[in-house]
Structure formats: C-alpha cells, structure tokens
Amino acid sequence: MKDPLAPHRSQARGGPLHGGQEDRTEGLPQDLAPALAAEEAGDPFVLGGETFTSRLLLGTGGVPSLEALEAAVRASGTQLVTVALRRVEASATSSMMQVLDRAGVRLLPNTAGCMTAREAVRTARLGREAFGTDWVKLEVIGDDRTLLPDAVELLDAAEQLVAEGFTVLAYTTDDPVLGRRLADAGCAAVMPLGSPIGSGLGIRNPHNVALLREAVEVPVVLDAGIGTASDAALAMELGCDAVLLASAVTRARDPERMALAMRQAVEGGRLAKLAGRIPRRWHAEASTSFEGLPAL
Amino acid sequence: MELTVNGAPAELADDATVADLVAARAAGHDRVAVARNGDVVPRSSWTATRLAPGDAVEVLAPTAGG
User: Using one digit for the tens of pLDDT, what is the confidence trace for A27-40?
Assistant: First the structure.
C-alpha cells in the first residue's frame, strides 16, 4: 500500500521550505483531492472575519522536537497554531517561531495557566504585544487537577477583552448556556471541551456539544480531549465548525502521521455533516429491493 | 538598584531601561513582551521606560502551548 505520508515527508525534510498553504491537496492521495477542492470552494471556514480552508487548529504543547513540530504542522494542513508566553528562561528557543513562520501559519496566543480573569486579561495583553495580534485563545482554568474552565472568571475575562478590542476564542465547558453567554459577550468563537485537556477521553457528552452548536451563531470549535481521529470526525459530525487539538498529535507515537489522520478525520467528518447522515433505525432496512425476488 | 525580574532578585544599573533589560535577558528572541508591575510596557516605550528600585518585571517569550 502506498504510504500517504511519503509526499509530506519529502516536502518537510527535503525540498525548499516555503509557506505550505498554496495547495493543500498537493501530496494527498489522488482520490481525496477532488473532494477537498469541492469542499474548499463552497465551504470556507470564517473565523473572526478571516477565511480559512483548514478546519483543524493545532496546539504546539507537548511537541517532542522542532522536526516533529514542522512535520506535524505541514501534514495537518493547519493555518492557525496556538502558542504561549512564558518567562524567557523557560521559553522555547527562537527556532520554534522560525518553524512556524516558515510554515506560514497564523499564530494564536493563549492564556494557558491563568486562573483568574485578571491574570488572563494581562496575559492576553502581553500576547498581543509579543505576537502582534489581537486574537487570543482565552483559557481560564479552575484548578490544576482537571484544568476545567472557571465559568465565572472566564465570562468576566471575555467581557473585558472584547471591550478592549480582542478577537476572543473562548475555551469553555460543553455547557450550552455558558456558550450562549460567551457568544452574547462578543466572543468570536466558542470552544467547548470534549473532555479534560490532555486526557484523550474524546467527546464525553456529544449531546451537549450538539446543543451548544444550536445555541450560538458564532463558530464552535471543539477544543480539548481529542484522543484519536474518530473523536475529531465525531466533533465535525456533531456540527462543530473546526477542531483544536494538541496532545493527540504532539504526544502520539508518530506525530506527523497522526497529524495527517486528524486532517483527514476533520475533512471526512465535515463532508459527512454536509452530506447528511441517514437516520438511525431500530430494525434493518434492506438496500436491495425484494421486488422480483425469484422463488427458489 | 535592586528589583525583581521573572520572580528572582536582580541587580541593575540605576539608569537601566526596559530596553536594557530585554537586551540582557532576551537576546535572540524577536517576539518578547514585558510586564512592569503587572502592566504591559509596549515595545515602542522600552527605550524611554526607566526601571525603578523594587519594580517587579516579567520578561516573556514564546513557548509551545495548546
């Protein structure tokens, strides 16, 4: 069987490095290219006023090496990558940013680790200064063990940041009511967790995610908890507009291969959502007609 | 003067500016943000912003993160 990663490998490690977004069908299996092209033409992903062709957002946390990061970013086809700010002694080398700049992706600073609205707002302002973007992945967690969002601090921070002109992508629980409150506060996207960050437990409450999708008009991005490709496909089948994941790729045995799996899962899930699944039935429904069945 | 940089005591020249501190601590990084006593110091003000004894300064740079 042909190795679907082969073209990505040669691009990532051999040939000249250039912005990878000109042709995202390049190097994909032949039979996937037409479906992708059709999807891109009629189904753009609009987030914060910007149009994306990829519906996969990639976090860089947990990445084992710069080589793995570069290969995963390229294989994923992502156009939006999250980054964090830390004290300079604990920060990554500047080469990480060079890898991301080469890949031509847009950067999305986060407020990871913040536990109060005050910390998150200050971190967002620092991210705006460092990265030159007013986009922020707003994350306000309630405790270290679950890393679950603190709803009260989150909404407070979202209101302040929207007032300061930020494009706020809010990491939140799968509560549809809180999601609506965040959207009403002016968030550009609501990003419910599937399960706790880094847990790989997938989507624990698909019903809530679907309800949340119905409750808001802004994009819904499934963020956190994805473990494997079927989780990402399910998110899209539930109606999510995109998926944000990090650990599932960066901590996979083969990050590059998993990045391609996620890309195809997101695309497959989106196509299935647009195509319209058949209803679930209790009993079988024959696909071959009984009419003209011979008596044997 | 004595002040706190990234959570640790530091000794800097009495006329040190934010720009001096960034040059000393974050050479090689081109995406740096500085908070002085919790407030962002915009890059455009680094050269003009003198530090003061007792300041708590954070010098931050990008890292991997979800």
Answer: 555 555 555 554 55
The yes-or-no verdict on residue A13 having pLDDT over 50 is: no
CB atoms within 10 A of CB A228: 15
B63/A85 CB distance under 8 A: yes
In the residue annotation, A2 being an active-site residue is answered as no
Q: How distant is the alpha carbon of residue B64 from its chain centre?
A: 21
User: Which of A90-94, A158-162, A271-275, B36-40 has the lowest average pLDDT?
Assistant: A90-94
**Residue A169 covered by a domain:** yes
Amino acid at B33: A
pLDDT for residue A268 is more than 80: yes
Q: Is B31's Cβ below 8 Å from some Cβ in A?
A: yes
Q: Does A39 reside within a domain?
A: no
CB-facing half-sphere around the CA of B52: CA atoms within 13 A: 4
A224 has a chain B CB within 8 A of its CB: yes
Look at strands A221-223 and A50-52 and give their pairing.
Answer: unpaired
From CA A289, how far away is CA A56, in angstroms rounded?
Answer: 41
Confirm or deny that A19 is annotated as ligand binding.
Answer: no
Domain that holds residue A61: 47-275
* Interface contact flag, B62 A97, Cβ < 8 Å: yes
Tell me the ipTM for this assembly.
0.94
The answer to whether A286 is a known ligand-binding residue is no
Is there a contact between B33 and A85 if contact means CB atoms under 8 Å apart? Answer: yes
Q: What is the mean pLDDT of residues B12-29?
A: 93
**Vertex A39: Cα angle to A34 and A40 (nearest 5):** 100
Domain count, chain A: 1
B3 interfacial to chain A (CB closer than 8 Å): no
A129 interface with B at CB cutoff 8 Å: yes
Q: What is the mean pLDDT of chain A?
A: 89
Please report the domains of chain B, with CATH numbers, ordered by start residue.
2-60 (3.10.20.30)
Please check the confidence at residue A247 and state whether its pLDDT lies above 90: yes
A170 found inside a domain: yes
Q: Is A225 annotated as a binding residue?
A: yes
Q: How far is B30 from chain A (nearest CA, A)?
A: 8
pLDDT digits (tens, 9 = 90+) for A201-234: 999 999 999 999 999 999 999 999 999 999 999 9
Which CATH number does the domain housing residue A56 bear?
3.20.20.70
What separation, in Å, do the N-terminal and C-terminal C-alpha atoms of chain B show? 38
